[in-house]
């Protein structure tokens, strides 16, 4: 009696193991066949205008930065097998030197989209802090930025920024969605020149493809 019971249990266990192994193999085959590749990103155009730094000398020691920046980022899906669904893109601008925040983007377009396999999409990101209260920064950050804008004094300033994109994406492997959160970081060094009116700040254009780093 007892022996028959144990035999029954063994068969059951073998069944379960076989089932688990075949699920594992199926997932592996899926992964190998559809293996999602990392997206690639580059800045192919950036236009900065109205960049102004106001240093406050009233004891508080802080500063205010006003600017407007429009950036075209090219996102490339190199996978020949899977499309990428972008569910959200969170964009922020930082100063390259000290990593100080210049705030979140005002608009990202498109915000949500599907990128077919082996394709490239352009996302336009707009920052507009040219009006209102601008962005408050620490006093040393304002001083450093002011120095970068002035450059050697002959109007040959270069300002280093970093565009930070935190995306939420889904890869659809058949009916299995795989979620990922790629972090895209794009360094940009934009040469700046004063506008026609002193009050309108400095601006500049970047028109070559700076590669971004992408981490998963
Ligand atoms: C930036 O991207 C938008 C949308 O694709 C496009 O209409 C615009 O021409 C691009 N600008 C530049 C300068 O490439
Ligand atoms: C851009 O967004 C900031 C806050 O994130 C806001 O203070 C500012 O007014 C916005 N600019 C425009 C033009 O809407
Ligand atoms: C931005 O700069 C342009 C010219 O560079 C100027 O005409 C405009 O008034 C400026 N806007 C602000 C809000 O400073």
Automatic annotation (TrEMBL):
How is this protein situated with respect to the membrane?
A: Single-pass membrane protein
Identify the keywords attached in UniProt to this record, alphabetized: Membrane, Transmembrane, Transmembrane helix
Gene Ontology terms: biological process: defense response to other organism
Q: What would be one Gene Ontology cellular-component term for the protein? A: plasma membrane
Residues spanning the membrane: 12-32
Location of the protein in the cell: Membrane
Q: Tell me which PANTHER family the record gives.
A: HARPIN-INDUCED PROTEIN 1 CONTAINING PROTEIN (PTHR31415:SF16), OS05G0367900 PROTEIN (PTHR31415)
Signal peptide (from-to): none
Query: What protein name applies here?
Result: Late embryogenesis abundant protein LEA-2 subgroup domain-containing protein
Name all Late embryogenesis abundant protein LEA-2 subgroup domain ranges.
73-176
Q: Does the keyword Iron apply?
A: no
């Amino acid at each position: 009696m007892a022996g028959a019971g144990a035999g029954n249990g063994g068969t059951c266990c073998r069944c379960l193991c076989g089932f688990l192994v075949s699920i594992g193999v199926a997932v592996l085959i899926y992964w190998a066949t559809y293996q999602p590749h990392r997206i690639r990103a580059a800045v192919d155009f950036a236009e900065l205008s109205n960049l102004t730094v106001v240093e406050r000398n009233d004891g508080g020691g802080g500063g205010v930065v006003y600017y407007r920046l429009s950036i075209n980022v090219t996102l490339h899906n190199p996978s020949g097998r899977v499309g990428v669904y972008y569910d959200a893109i969170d964009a922020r601008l930082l100063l390259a030197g000290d990593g100080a925040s210049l705030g979140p983007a005002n608009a990202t377009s498109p915000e949500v989209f599907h990128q077919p396999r082996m394709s490239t999409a352009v996302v336009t990101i707009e920052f507009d802090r040219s009006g209102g209260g601008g962005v408050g920064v620490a006093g040393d950050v304002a001083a450093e930025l002011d120095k970068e804008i002035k450059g050697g004094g002959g109007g040959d300033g270069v300002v280093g920024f970093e565009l930070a994109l935190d995306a939420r994406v889904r890869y659809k492997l058949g009916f299995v969605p795989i979620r990922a959160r790629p972090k895209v970081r794009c360094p940009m060094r934009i040469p700046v020149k004063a506008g026609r009116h002193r009050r309108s700040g400095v601006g500049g254009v970047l028109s070559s493809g700076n590669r971004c780093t992408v981490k998963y």
